[in-house]
Amino acid sequence: MFFKQSCLTFVVNNNVRKFSISDIEGLIGIKAHTIRAWEIRYNLVPPKRTPTNIRFYDEDDLKMLLNIVALNENGYKISRIAKMTHKQISDLVTQLKSDWSNDSVQMLSLSNATIAYDEVEFSEVLGKCIEEMGLVKTMDVVLFPFMKRVGMLWQTGTIDPSHEHFASNLIRDRIIVEIDKVEKPEKAEVKRFLLFLPEAEMHETGLLFARYLLKRCGHDTLYLGSEIPYTDLKKVVESYQPDFAFIVLTSLNLGKDINKIIGKVMDNLNVPLLVAGSLISEFDILVKDQLTPLKNVCDMTDFLEDL
After folding, report:
1. Considering only CA atoms, which of 216, 232, 223, 229 is closest in space to residue 193?
2. Per residue in 255-281, pLDDT tens?
3. The total number of structural domains that make up the chain
4. Is the N or C terminus of the chain more exposed, i.e. has fewer CB atoms within 10 Å?
5. The HTH merR-type domain covers which part of the protein (predicted)?
């Protein structure tokens, strides 16, 4: 998905947020020309205008557009949606939300809750998805795609950093709860994993998920968290003596030379390194001895369960 830099991002006037069409494009995942076509052909969610004639959308418009996208992605044609009242649209979306395995609807629900800072709604959607699908599938089809979109919107200025922190912290807290629920099985050959994020990488969601998978598989972990200095790694490895090290790379702040970062990590380790995260699937990773890229959830689960 292509995200444009917003020209009217989250302007606040009398406590009313205003969104440009490029903001809306990024938030709902529909191109601006399509949104304009809906407006022209069907008078669907026409924008408002400032006293200086600048077009904008408010939060109610955004919610309605999110609902329209949810219906459209679940088989309802725009021409049919245009004939519905707002209440009919909302009622249909409420019915769709009751199917917690409907990942497209739940992603939109999480987006709506994030924009509104609605912790109750966000936690309910997240909890029900995990209850219905389990944490592994929820991470694969809902949370990782959702967090990738949120990260892009933050980078382009369409949402505030506070929205990204709001969502990621709630997800982080829930994964920790799920980790605590796991009863670690007995395993004949238990491996030791060193889990950490290198310098400039702060997003722990993927690393915590790896910890969940490892505990579920019966392995031991030493979890160090984010932004561990490269110079500390040799001391930790010498003390803990892991069989593997595991890092996750997702932050766009790391830049495009992901191989350089991986090289720095490996220079300070003498154990096999597993690397996961969205950046691994976006860039070509150089083949190295003792390096295993894990490009998606299936790669992670398959590798760990086969140990």
Report:
1. 223
2. 678 899 999 999 999 899 999 988 888
3. 3
4. N
5. 18-87
What are the phi and psi torsion angles at 6 (to 5°)? Answer: -75, 145
Question: Is 8 a residue whose pLDDT tops 80?
Answer: no
C-alpha–C-alpha distance, residues 3 and 150, integer Å: 11
| Domain of residue 4, residue span | 1-95
Query: Do 46 and 27 share a structural domain?
Result: yes
Read off the CATH number of the domain in which 71 is found: 1.10.1660.10
Distance (Å, whole) CA 83 – CA 75: 15
Provide long-range contacts, Cβ within 8 A and 24+ apart, for 16-19: 16/58, 16/59, 17/58, 17/59, 18/50, 18/56, 18/57, 18/58, 19/56, 19/57, 19/58, 19/61, 19/62
Token pair belonging to 40: 């022209």
Query: pLDDT tens, 155-196?
Result: 767 778 899 899 999 999 999 999 999 999 988 889 999 999
Last residue of a domain, one of 181, 205, 233: 181
248 and 271 both lie in a single domain: yes
Please identify which residue in the block is written with the tokens 């720095």: 264
Looking at the fold, whether 78 and 155 belong to one and the same domain comes out as: no
Backbone angles phi, psi at 81, to 5 degrees: -60, -40
